[in-house]
């Protein structure tokens, strides 16, 4: 690895953790060896497990899971946490940085997203190209309103336009929505469910991010690769094919944001 | 520029025929011709030629933004991709085939073990599977298996080897698949292309 990359990563770690400390996040640093938890393996099958003294342990593969396990085992005096450190998946070590917010309000989530975007734009002089958002529960609104079979979920998740057209017909609002350009979906969803809490939150986010001048995309097919996200989810891209920032709601009352230090285009 | 992964085989010929029928002359001129080159560029679209089973791997990784692949490949293995649309060509099907007088199937040879496993599991039929990489028609002729699970297009290969179809498993079509990230970051170019080839109106 080039010296320059190592130095830039360490500089990022210092600047990012300093920002979090200034914004009253509790910084955490935890042992990489953790008690084995079967849910960690379910969420990250590449998690390495080993035995020592007849007990099973795993090596940290995801900071969000580690903090979630910790928060379920111990009483926390804080609600906002920040981290930077290595994780191991499939024998490969890489670094994660991010925050976890427990029981946040909408305002606190918006502020944290804005804090991350401005850290990148102001600190690194980078410009975000686009942000993609979705909330899994938006599809529930369509399923309820149009009395659709729940099997439609899989077709929407894989954006199977030909099968959706066959099952719904090409004039059905859900087919029209999903076959539209993804950057046109926001207006179509707003026309039907603009007064829902979910769309009000997404609208607020869109307005809050207007100053960044990036493309705002809502797509009902867009989902996290991590199955524990179960509500609002987003990814923000520099002019690059991998997201730099990703985050969302999980466990019904927690919200996490992670910075992609491997291939997000920042370092 | 977007990158589209194609496979040079039966599906490619069907794709050329489809483009011919739909007057996509710009692409036909660049694609229709004997060449050993592994890619070609037409305006804003770079076509790369890969082995069929590798097409979804290129798309999943983002090396290719779109791919045209048989549904057999993305049914046999799981890929983290958008499975955007069936295309109106590349039609064939999976069948259980064997010698005409074969009455029961206890051992099946196939390249597609996951599809065969799922099929017999759904029928609650206890069948042993043998994985072969090709020329599976040999297996029942040489006594390695009672039958085969394979793709049937015209049935010519089966007939040439004295085999017949016993059970049809599923239809196969060409499908357009897309990368889950560049579908957003290259939205305009991707929509222009899928509109041009008739996936959306």
Describe the model:
- Chain A is of the alpha+beta class and 267 residues long.
- Chain A folds into 2 domains: 3-128 and 232-260, Bira Bifunctional Protein, Domain 2 (BirA Bifunctional Protein, domain 2); 132-207, no CATH class.
- Chain A is 40% helix and 25% strand.
- Chain A has helices at residues 3-22, 38-43, 63-73, 106-124, 136-145, 152-157, 161-168, 173-179, 185-193, 197-208, and strands at 26-28, 33-35, 49-52, 55-59, 80-89, 92-102, 130-135, 215-218, 229-237, 245-250, 254-260.
- In chain A, the strands form 2 sheets. In chain A, strands 1-5-6-11-10-9-7-8 form an 8-stranded mixed beta sheet. In chain A, strands 2-4-3 form a 3-stranded antiparallel beta sheet, with no helix packed on it.
- Chain B is an alpha/beta fold and 201 residues long.
- Chain B has 2 domains: 2-91 and 173-196, Periplasmic binding protein-like II (D-Maltodextrin-Binding Protein, domain 2); 92-171, 3-Layer(aba) Sandwich (D-Maltodextrin-Binding Protein, domain 2), CATH 3.40.190.10.
- Helices cover 32% and strands 33% of the residues of chain B.
- Chain B has a 9-stranded mixed beta sheet with strand order 2-3-1-4-9-5-8-6-7, with helices on both faces.
- In chain B, strand 6, helix 5 and strand 7 (128-131) form a beta-alpha-beta unit.
- The two termini of chain B are 22 Å apart.
- The model of chain B has no long low-confidence stretch (mean pLDDT 93).
- The interface between A and B is medium-sized, with 26 and 21 residues.
């Amino acid at each position: 690895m080039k010296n320059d990359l190592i130095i830039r990563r360490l500089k990022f770690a210092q600047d990012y953790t300093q920002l979090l400390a200034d914004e009253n996040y509790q910084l955490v640093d935890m042992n990489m060896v953790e008690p084995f938890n079967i849910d960690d393996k379910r969420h990250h099958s590449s998690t390495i497990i080993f035995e020592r003294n007849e007990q099973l342990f795993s090596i940290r593969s995801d900071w969000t899971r580690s903090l979630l396990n910790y928060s379920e085992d111990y009483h926390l005096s804080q609600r906002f946490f920040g981290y930077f450190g290595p994780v191991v998946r499939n024998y490969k070590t890489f670094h994660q940085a991010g925050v976890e917010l427990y029981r946040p309000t909408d305002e606190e989530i918006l502020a944290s997203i804005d804090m991350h975007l401005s850290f990148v734009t102001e600190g690194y002089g980078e410009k975000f190209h686009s942000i993609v958002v979705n909330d899994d529960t938006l599809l529930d609104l369509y399923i309820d309103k149009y009395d659709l079979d729940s099997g439609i979920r899989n077709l929407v998740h894989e954006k199977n336009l030909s099968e959706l057209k066959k099952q719904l017909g090409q004039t059905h609002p859900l087919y029209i929505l999903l076959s539209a350009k993804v950057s046109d979906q926001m207006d179509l969803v707003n026309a039907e469910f603009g007064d829902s809490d979910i769309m009000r939150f997404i609208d607020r986010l869109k307005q809050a991010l207007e100053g960044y001048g990036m493309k705002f995309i809502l797509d009902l097919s867009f989902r996290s690769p991590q199955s524990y996200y179960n509500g609002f989810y987003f990814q923000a891209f520099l002019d690059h094919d991998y997201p730099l920032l990703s985050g969302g709601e999980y466990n019904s009352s927690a919200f996490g944001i992670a910075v992609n230090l491997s291939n997000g285009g920042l370092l | 520029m977007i990158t589209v992964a194609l496979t040079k085989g039966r599906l490619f010929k069907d794709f050329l025929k489809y483009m011919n029928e739909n007057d996509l002359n710009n692409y036909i001129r660049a694609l229709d011709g004997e060449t050993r080159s592994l890619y070609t560029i037409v305006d804003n679209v770079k076509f790369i030629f890969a082995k069929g089973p590798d097409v979804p791997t290129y798309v999943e990784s983002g090396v290719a933004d779109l791919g045209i692949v048989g549904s057999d490949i993305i049914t046999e293995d799981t890929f983290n991709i958008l499975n955007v649309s069936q295309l109106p060509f590349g039609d064939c099907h999976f069948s259980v085939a064997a010698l005409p007088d074969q009455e029961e199937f206890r051992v099946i040879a196939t390249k597609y073990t996951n599809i065969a496993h799922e099929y017999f599991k759904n029928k609650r039929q206890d069948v042993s599977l043998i994985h072969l990489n090709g020329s599976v028609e040999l297996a029942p002729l040489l006594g390695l298996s009672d039958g085969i699970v394979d793709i049937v297009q015209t049935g010519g290969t089966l007939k040439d080897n004295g085999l017949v179809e016993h059970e049809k498993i599923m239809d196969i079509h060409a499908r357009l698949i897309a990368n889950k990230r560049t579908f957003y970051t290259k939205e305009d170019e991707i929509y222009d292309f899928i509109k041009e080839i008739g996936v959306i109106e």
